[in-house]
Design a protein that fits this description.
The chain has about 80 residues and is α+β, with helices and mostly antiparallel strands. It is built from 2 helices and 3 strands; from the N terminus they run αββαβ. Strands 2-1-3 form a 3-stranded antiparallel β-sheet, with helices on both faces. The N and C termini lie far apart (about 45 Å).
C-alpha cells in the first residue's frame, strides 16, 4: 500500500507537537499516555498500547496512515548508548 506523503507528514507533525506538549506539561491530556493518530487527527488516547492499536484498527485500515506516540519518550534528542565490554 502506498502512503500519501501529505498524510504521513501531517501525522508526523502532530506526533511531534503532542510529544512536546506532553513532556512540557504534566497536566496535558496526553501526558504519560499512548496517543493514536490517523490521517492527521488524534483518534485515541489511552494508558496502554493495545487500546490505541485496537482503536486505530477500527478507524483506519491502512497502517501507513497511522502513528502511535508514546508520550514518555523524547524523540528530539540523540541518545548515545555505550557498551562497557
Amino acid at each position: 500500500m502506498v502512503q500519501d506523503s501529505s498524510v504521513g507528514e501531517a501525522n508526523d507533525r502532530l506526533a511531534r507537537e503532542i510529544n512536546r506538549e506532553a513532556r512540557q506539561d504534566s497536566k496535558s491530556p496526553y501526558a504519560r499516555k499512548f496517543v493514536g493518530i490517523a490521517n492527521g487527527k488524534v483518534v485515541a488516547i489511552a494508558d496502554t498500547l493495545r487500546e490505541v492499536d485496537l482503536r486505530l484498527d477500527e478507524v483506519e485500515s491502512n497502517p501507513a496512515n497511522c502513528r502511535i506516540v508514546d508520550t514518555i519518550g523524547d524523540y528530539e534528542t540523540v541518545q548515545e548508548i555505550w557498551s562497557a565490554d
